[in-house]
Amino acid sequence: MKYYALLPLIFLFSALNCKNYTSKDSQNYRHKSEDVSINQGFYFTVNFEFTQDNYQLISKHQNDGNLSFDIQIPTDMFLVAYKKDKLFFYSELTDPLTMRTVGEREMEETMEKGSLNINLPKEFANKDSTKNLDIYIYKVNEYMENFESSVVLKEKLEELEQQQVIRKRYTINASQLAHFLNQ
After folding, report:
1. pLDDT at 2
2. Would you say 70 and 78 are in contact if contact means Cβ atoms under 8 Å apart?
3. What contacts 142, CB < 8 A, 6 or more positions away?
4. Contacts (Cβ under 8 Å, ≥6 apart) of 89
5. Residue 43 CB burial class (10 angstroms; 0-12, 13-18, ≥19)
6. Structural contact between residues 73 and 143, judged by C-beta atoms closer than 8 angstroms
7. Cβ-Cβ contacts under 8 Å for 4 (sequence gap 6 or more)
8. Which domain of life is it from (predicted)?
9. For the chain, how are helix, strand and coil distributed in percent, rounded to 5?
10. Residue 11: pLDDT band with limits 50, 70, 90
11. Which helix (H) or strand (E) holds 159?
């Protein structure tokens, strides 16, 4: 009898983790995406603090394991890194300067300062590889068709920027980031 009391919790946990129980084929059917896994042994979680015009590196933490990313159409912001104009890394982000309250009606409020934790591959700490690395954070202005193919090449992403579909909000200094990760 006491085990029946756990059924609502079991249902809740299985519902929250439902994407773990779907096959890769069914996930691709619903959201065309590209999975990329970087086998590296560890990765960094970096805390960034943002203002409207600038960013600051606050803290870092090294995590064990591999970092994988899934390229899907972003809704708010995204970080993208190119090595020799080809996609090296992608991460979908929430806007740290926008606070959304949920209640009777959803409202957005813009803040002057906000922080965000971003997972980054360990290769960002390699000073030699960052010489050819361009890292940007873009703000999404409107929905994008075929984003997965547009983000692969830097030139195609620049076309989206010219069409004002996205706006470059921050350019991350790769050398500064590498120095910070090696401290």
Report:
1. 54
2. no
3. 165
4. 38, 69, 79, 80, 81, 120, 121, 124, 135
5. buried
6. yes
7. none
8. Bacteria
9. 30, 40, 30
10. very low
11. helix 154-162
H-type alpha helices, 87-153: 147-150
What residues contact residue 52 under an 8 Å CB cut-off, 6+ apart?
A: 97, 112
Taking only Cα atoms into account, the Rg of the chain, rounded to an integer number of angstroms, comes to: 19
| Between residues 55 and 11, the one the model is more confident about | 55
Residue pLDDT, tens place only, 107-152: 677 889 999 999 999 899 998 888 889 999 999 999 888 888 888 8
- Euclidean distance between CA atoms 72 and 144, whole angstroms: 10
Phi, psi of 53 (to 5 degrees): -110, -15
Q: How far apart are CA 115 and CA 49, in angstroms?
A: 4
Compute the distance between CA of residue 74 and CA of residue 103 in angstroms, rounded to an integer: 24
How many residues does this entry show for the chain? 183
Q: What is the pTM of this model?
A: 0.74
Read off the tokens for 103. Answer: 């209640």
